[in-house]
Amino acid sequence: MANVSLLNQFNLFNEMFLPTLCHKLPADCEKYLESSLVLVGEIGGNDYNDAFLQGKSVDDVRLFALRVVEEIIFTINELIKLGAVTLMVAGNFPIGCSAAYLTYFKSSNEKDYDPETGCLNWLNNFSQYHNKLLQSELDLIRNQNPKVNLIYADYYNAAMPIYRSPENYGFTEGALRACCGAGGPYNVDLKVQCGGGGSHTCKDPSSHVSWDGVHLTEAAYRSIATSLLRGSFTVPQLQSVCNSLSSIHTGPNAISDN
Is residue 169 within 8 Å of 251, Cβ to Cβ? Predict the structure, then answer.
């Protein structure tokens, strides 16, 4: 995995990608961003994966989360300075439902697991901690920039209904077992990557929520995206800002972990 900081990603966006869309003229770039939906996130997933899988304690990673959120907020403010007025900022997924984490942090204590979903409570609590920090900072930006449409995309709560009732969303193989992996309760062997020797792929990825233990399947992402677009999992609700988005004439510009 390439070690590319969020600041480096922003600089690449600003110095290389954006000029190709607006003829390198600052006024044109500002106008372009004013009429664009800019997607930021989700950010932090790779940072937290590395920390937890290296054995860092949840208390240590909570302190680290403050820095992660600070970097997200810095990037949002820089995008606003460039001219962005409509931004969608994504929170983190329920990582306690990740097949990789469920494998790595397998516990004999039933109280560690949510009896409804089988997810690890303490990891999902951490995801919610990150998301609350982020939402609090987004509120400050809204107060400071009343003309900016700042939309929070609640990936966590958009995903949880799938983990509670996967069959209702067409995921007949359940929510926790990966499609591509190398065996075990969650079809994850942390020493064998999907596509590597010893791994195998399920016949129908659309029947699974998890693709490789870390990433979701296209079907799962589609279901979450539909919930964001049509449901109540954005703050403010996306429908309520549609009028301000009516002038958008291009696809979203994105800075994210994936």
Answer: no
- Cα separation, 198 vs 48, in Å, equals 27
* pLDDT reported for residue 249: 43
H or E segment and range at residue 254: strand 253-255
For position 2, what pLDDT does the model report?
55
What residues does 216 pair with on adjacent strands? 210
Could you tell me the CA-to-CA distances from 135 to 114, 217, 220 in Å, in that order?
24, 27, 24
In sequence order, what are the beta bridge partners of 235? 152
Q: Closest Cα to residue 167, out of 102, 223, 99?
A: 223
Q: Given this model, what pLDDT does residue 22 score? A: 83
Which mean pLDDT values do the consecutive 10-residue runs of the chain (258 residues) have? 78 89 80 91 92 92 95 96 95 97 96 98 98 98 96 98 98 97 95 94 97 97 95 88 55 58
Query: What's the confidence (pLDDT) of residue 253?
Result: 58
Strands 149-153 and 180-181: unpaired
- Tell me the CA distances in angstroms from 49 to 32, 53, 154, 214, 233, one per residue in order: 35, 6, 19, 9, 24
CA 180 to chain centre: 20
HEC per residue, 71-108? HHHHHHHHHHHHCCCEEEEECCCCHHHCHHHHHHCCCC
| 25 CB neighbour count, 10 Å cutoff | 11
Which single residue is written with the structure tokens 């990582």?
95
Q: Which residue has the tokens 């990603």?
A: 9
Task: Identify the residue whose tokens are 């106008």.
Answer: 31
